[in-house]
Amino acid sequence: MNFAERLDGLIGAVSPEWGASRKRARLDMLAAQEATRLYEAAETNRRTSGWNRRPSGANTDNARGRAKLSWAARDLVQNSKYAAAGVRQLVATLWGDGIAPIIVHEDKAIRQRAQDEWDRWAEGKVDGIGDWYANGKLSVREMIVGGESLNLWKPDANGPDGHVFGIEGEQLDTSKSFMLQNGARIVQGVQYGSDLLPEGYWLFDENPHDRIARMSFNSRFVSAQDVDHMYERLRHGQARGASWLGAVAMTLKDIADIEDATRLREKVQACLAVFITPAEGQGSPLGTTSTQEDDGPGDLATETLRPGLIGRLRPGEQVSTLNPQPSAVTVDFIRQQLAAVSANMIPYHLMTGDVSQANYSGLRAAMNGSYAMIDDWQQNEIIPMLVMPAVRRRMQRLYLETGDRRFLDVKLDYARPIRRLVDPIKDLAGEVMEIRAGLKTLEQGLGERGQNAEEHLQRIKQMNDMIDTLGLALDSDPRRVTDSGVLQAAAGYLRPQGDN
Q1: Most exposed residue of 80, 90, 202, 446, measured as fewest CB within 10 angstroms of its CB?
Q2: DSSP letter string, 148-165
Q3: Domain ranges of the chain
């Protein structure tokens, strides 16, 4: 044991906290030395002198910048056409007309009753204004822009969880962040028990940034049983979410500034001006020269340009013109920056509307890459944090009303928003091949298009029965005719040779 270790032991006996801090500092120093030997990014030299590499924690970073980040994102969505389009397209792709739950249970009567009960409630005014799917759209949008959204559940006249009200993350009391007894804690308004499971949320009655005279700045505790909190977790232990626009906010702001400068340059270039300098003691040949010695507020002294300007100058005054030249790389630079932004949000052509350089292969590659992110967000955030808790609450209420515990055992599948095809003929041909090869089921294919497989097939059967009853022969009927117009022999519609 060396001297430093013996000293740490003596200090720890007198002050355990001081001794622990010394040991921690020594371990951090050793780790830094090891990292410096192994990684260039861990070195301290000229190349890394301006690099902010401070230690951080998920909740520490959020406490420092989450609020201002959400304010910046809201400003961009309000004033940047690219941010507004990107968020709208992302919401439409993630949520669309809604992620519809499909109840699954071996007992058909239980399945049908549960599905009917959910559909009846979800298609009503769940918050007094819109249905469940309208509330879900706002929740998804708020998660993207503000970083998180919360659903507050309240009872109605018939029982618990009858109404749901979406609220923004600003209503969480960030100032409440401290340790409680027995290992419990509050982290930026989210209270955890000693088992590290959420116990509840400290919420303001109103958004602190709304101008409401009766607003109270005292938050109140709301049990986690009445709140569904949706946000994207990027680190273990993260209590709250940050705006998805964080990584691209500065780029979007710079693009807006560049476009404003370019727009002003084009306006200046469009200004054709004529300057007249009369000879000493002579008036202007184009009209009477003003007898006023001082320029008024609307005269040339205001130093402004406008199209068609004719300016009269005093004898002896000279004029030099500013002739800005267009930059040949501005458009390419903005396009490259927008491509980088779209890589973090939604494909470039959807965010900008620019398909001038697009082709089928490029569009399909962009959409396929986007689908992977869409699956991630839907499966890991929206469904488990927004949709599934809502269905479970309604099934719990149905159990309380009927006393049948089977409603608590139902399983869930989901009909997601329809994914639009880049080229329907090519894309559908590939999908048919996947189904025929057994790589996916028809039910999966219908689910990807936002269809309930059982209901969809029932509608097909009803339509086929109607066609048969009316004695119709349609070219679109695959039971009778192939896609090339040939009668289907396997279905029995080709008569044997010699048969009258």
Answers
A1: 446
A2: EEEEEEEEETTEEEEEEE
A3: 3-48, 268-287+303-342
